[in-house]
Amino acid sequence: MCILAIRAAIFIQKWYRRHQARQEMRKRCNWQIFQNLEYASEQDQAELYKFFNDLIKHMPQAAGGAGTKSQTATHVSLLDDKDMLMEEATDIVSTKIEMPIKKQHIDLLIDVFRKKRCNRLHPKYVALILREAAKSLKQMPNISMVTTAVSQQVTVCGDLHGKLDDLLVVLYKNGLPSSSNPYVFNGDFVDRGKRGLEVLLLLLSLYLAFPNAVFLNRGNHEDSVMNARYGFTREVESKYPRNHKRLLLLIDEVYRWLPLGSILNSRVLIVHGGFSDNTSLDLIKSLDRGKYVSILRPPLTSSEPLDKTEWQQIFDIMWSDPQAVVGCTPNTLRGAGVWFGPDITDLFLKRHRLSYVIRSHECKPNGYEFMHDNKIITIFSASNYYAMGSNKGAYMRLNSQLVPHFVQYVSAASQVKQLSFKQRMGIVESSALKELAVRMREQRTELEAEFKLHDPDNTGSISIAKWCAAMENITKLGLPWRLLRDKLAPGTDSQSVNYIRTLDLLDTDVIMEAEADGTTVMDALYANKTSLVTIFNIIDADNSSEITLDEFETAIDLMVAHMSGVYSKVEMLEKCRMMDLNGDGKVDLNEFLEAFRLSDLHRKQQQEADIRKRSNNRSQINQPPSDSVTKLANTISRNTLVVEQDIDPTDCEAKIIE
């Protein structure tokens, strides 16, 4: 009996270890999907910055015209104008805000914003907060100086990304700002989450109410080009449909005047991303940050030459990430900024007489992470960032000796507690698969062609190795495709993959609806017309307000390179000739914008035609999606359904980590 008991114990132990290893593998696989998709998406967006850089490099005579005088004048006058705002139809509360903002106004805002309905301020109060905050921020230095001389401590928060519930948890657990309780909020207040406007307005109100106790740093998402892609622009449009254009212009004013970083007690640098081997804090302190309405577009420079070194300095502190190995190399995952190693950190700290750096910019499973012998600390404050239960958020408190401790938390804790481990894993996995399928759907035509290349007999199946190779060749996401085969081609055998099921999954309602809710790079580019105007101004090398066919051809190779798969050189030259209605060999700005609109419309119509064609082909051969695909789609739909509720900041789970 004793031997049997020992054998049974060993068997159970082995089973448990295998089970834990499988769960850990699933967890890491999901995390890799989320991070690789996030970085690949940002890489697409960073192409715009590269495109502008290449245009300016190859057309240096146009570099000074990238930002126009009229644009500069518009931004200057915004803060002086009285806002001509229209009444909005629904969900507007009667709460009044007046200057100066005081603690009672903060309490009112929190009470309004935390509700799921009737949670919108009158647009005139939104405009008031934005305008007054921009005016005040304009007076701040590029690098804010923060001290613990009076307070004896300071709190630093990382990315919030529209997660109002997390901001309210921080304020509930840590208290409102005051002279004895100062805060540094380290950028990325908006995008991705649904309550970005409320987060931004509350942070700006806290800054106005407690100007010596709230320090706001700019992140890479405090940028209208990023907002057009990642949801904040659409959020403002949906909440204030009659006034969104005016409000978005005021938000741009806030962005351009946000400080670029903070220094605590002259010893700790707090910036959103990081730095490179060329980063100079002296240069960053002296530059004119007001020129950079968007970091992804050339600055507003009127007629003086563009300083690309200065532009790169800002880009590096907003977009860079630390790496474990030595050196400083281009950040190929994000497509922008650099990866900096421990040797670069040591040199940077020595050069600027600093002890360590606090940065954000990366989601971490536990909300924080040490690197480079504890000289780089990453802090990330959005819990449940990718999905319910995907990660913890954290904020850090530093005492007068600059010794940090962390408060780790999860918002909406009661919802998480109701779920078993298996249910939490299912929700995270479904969210990861949904995001991945939406990304794959953008390349569905290319995927189908690649699969059929490996299937000359049109059997609908290919080997596992060929399926994995096709997936990586088209998506270039660097994911563990073998592990994902059962999820992306459900119900196939162990020797081959039925790639038709992969394509069927991409055509399910849940994936198509998610794709419709998203924004492509080209959608974002056209929605943010300022980028197109900037492109026009750069190509218009002689500042004649017209592009000649010769000027257009000079830039067209770069445009094709950065918009591959959407436009060819022949097509773009032909469109330019077609726009030249009077035959004088020139195209004005309105014609240029209209060409992008029509091309984008044609692209979407072609996508819809392809969907109808595939649907008709399937109905003609009477082949509905397999049960396994339908079951997976239903699971994804059920697990990713979000039910919005009033925010209760007391509904959190937090612990202090020394």
TrEMBL record:
Its EC number is 3.1.3.16. Residues 442-477, 527-562, 567-602 form the EF-hand domain. It is an enzyme of class 3 (hydrolase). Keywords: Calcium, Hydrolase, Manganese, Metal-binding, Repeat. Belongs to the PPP phosphatase family. Its cofactor is Mn(2+). This is Serine/threonine-protein phosphatase. It comes from Drosophila busckii (Fruit fly). GO terms for molecular function: calcium ion binding; iron ion binding; manganese ion binding; protein serine/threonine phosphatase activity. It catalyses: O-phospho-L-threonyl-[protein] + H2O = L-threonyl-[protein] + phosphate; O-phospho-L-seryl-[protein] + H2O = L-seryl-[protein] + phosphate. Residues 607-630 are annotated as: Disordered. Residues 617-630 have a biased composition (Polar residues). One of its GO terms (biological process) is detection of stimulus involved in sensory perception.
